[in-house]
Amino acid sequence: MKRFLLILLPLIIFYNSTSQTDTSKTIVFSGYMEPYYAYSSSVPDNHTLPSFLYSYNRHNEFTLNLGYIKAQYNKNSIRANFALMTGTYAEANLASEQGIMKNIFEANAGVSLSSQHNLWIDAGIFHSHIGFESAVGKDCHTVTRSLVAENSPYYESGVKISYTNSDGTWFFSGLLLNGWQKIKRPDGNNTPAFGSQIQYRKNKLLLNSSTFIGSDSPDSNRTMRYFHNFYGQYLFSEKSGIILGFDIGFQQRMKGASDYVQWYAPVVILFHSISDNISIAYR
Q1: In whole angstroms, what is the distance from residue 79 CA to residue 59 CA?
Q2: What does the radius of gyration of the chain's CA atoms come to, in whole angstroms?
């Protein structure tokens, strides 16, 4: 068996046209880049790391994992996001999408449903409601993504309704989706997919529960998938904390069957900030 050793040298560059002290702009532009070099001791001839990796997956190359430019609009009761991306992440994780859709990082718009409550309906292409890791490296505690993240959606498309209570402790969302990490619905598939998310935030504690119910196969041989993602994050101090996560999924072996394939994945991440610019994490 070949050994697998991955050495990563990423560089993260982020630009935002609005400072923390100036949030009055209606339209905000931002840009993001993750150039990197990776080396694997397995030395693959095609320079591609194992297919279960979607980020930093090119061996012995100086290349770009993810780069995007984004415009964000927010005024009164309307909000919208649009971002175009490129990089090896887009090539690997959106391989099943068509044409320009492979380069859509985010494209959605929403309308407030209440002048007195934080209640919104949004439609388009979003970041996934599942998991605590994203495609954006600066938002993750570890450089490489956990197998929990790599085997659950990074993005999704559809419509969602969301509500946040007045003090921000509770967040509720219900989603109608095109499928499991799908922009284009699979041919022959007319089965709606559903999702939900509940979050609780209080002081140093965050608890999250996310679900998915749906099928990505044609209706003629439809196999249903039932998935739940749970994670909790607790901050020991301003500089350190822990994340505990657990995913579990069930999928029918064949249409109408009572026999299911089951998978599950636990994850633990400890993180600590040494300074404002340096942090370490153990997974």
Answers
A1: 40
A2: 20
